[in-house]
Amino acid sequence: GTPIERLGCGPFNRGNSSFGFGYGDGFPIEQSHLVEAFGYGNTCTAWDYTPAREIIAMYFPALEYSIVIYLVFNYITDMLTYQRGSLPDWYWNASKVLFPLAIFLAIQFRMIFVCIAYENIKTHTAAFLGFQFTLVIIAIMNSFYVILTGQSYPEMNMSSKVVGLVSKVYLVLNMIISAVKIWATAYAVATATVPDLLKTDVFPGMKWSKLIDNLWLLFNVLLPLGISYIRMKSEEPLVLEITMPKHGYEGASKEEQSRII
To answer: Of 233, 236, 221, 220, which Cα lies nearest the Cα of 149?
Structure first.
């Protein structure tokens, strides 16, 4: 069973910490469980402890639902674009497979609030690994969409040739940095830490693990936000029409029926 000195300590069960803490000792956020495991504190570090974890969990569905709604509309766009002959079969087949996978992985990201970092880093990180796959799927498929449909953005003086070249460079660089990031995260899921090399300094104040994380966020969060704004302003939008059949009422004249919606 749990040793008596560890009962009720929760996040303060760090008697075996490399930072030298004893059971029950407090610690600064700069020496959190994830900092100890990964060599740096990522975005989630501030969400790992009460009461921040519970407060963020209350608002997190807004992010989750937004991503799921985006995935649905993105899939509809793929379907309509394929039906008009602007996308090849392989892209549409990939979209049909990756769409439900991305939905599933996106909704599992909530498990970071259930699988607590200071209790089980492996399962906590597994939830984030799935979300990484979701964002990478979105970024890569959108890049292929732009390339295959020959998009151009005259407002930015970018012809389809220039857009295609920029998209290919972005795609290659993103696939490289995402492969490294996903490998490091999968390693953490398996071992509860990252390879020792990633805990070393690139330069003072910057670990390899943090540099990789920052680059990954740039290519899969920040740049896609900017790209999506450009596409929103330049590409044809989806048009949604919500309607229903006319409803007839007993006893109404033909003239009255014609005015009923």
So the answer is: 236
Burial code (b: 16+ CB inside 10 Å, e: under 16) for 141-168 equals: bbbbbbbbeebbbeeeebeeeebbebbe
Sequence-distant contacts of 40-45: CB under 8 A, at least 24 apart:
40/207, 40/209, 40/210, 40/213, 42/210, 42/213, 43/217, 44/112, 44/117, 44/128
What is the pLDDT, as a whole number, of residue 256? 62
Residues 85-135 have pLDDT tens digits of 999 999 999 999 999 999 999 999 999 999 888 888 899 999 999 999 999
How far is it, in rounded angstroms, from Cα 8 to Cα 223?
44
Residue with token string 């302003």: 233
Kind and range of the H or E element at 203?
A: strand 201-203
Q: By the 8 A CB rule, do 189 and 129 touch?
A: yes
Residues 69-85 as b or e (16 or more Cβ within 10 Å = b): eebeebbebbeebbeee
Q: Which two tokens stand for residue 63?
A: 């992010």
User: Has residue 258 got a pLDDT over 80?
Assistant: no
95 or 5, which is more confident: 95
Rg (CA), the chain: 24
Distance CA 43, CA 213 (A): 10
What is the rounded CA–CA span in Å between residue 41 and residue 205?
Answer: 12
For tokens 């569905």, what's the residue?
A: 61
Q: Where are the alpha helices (DSSP H) in 109-120?
A: none
Six-digit token string for 176? 């490289």
In this prediction, residues 183-204 reach a mean pLDDT of 92
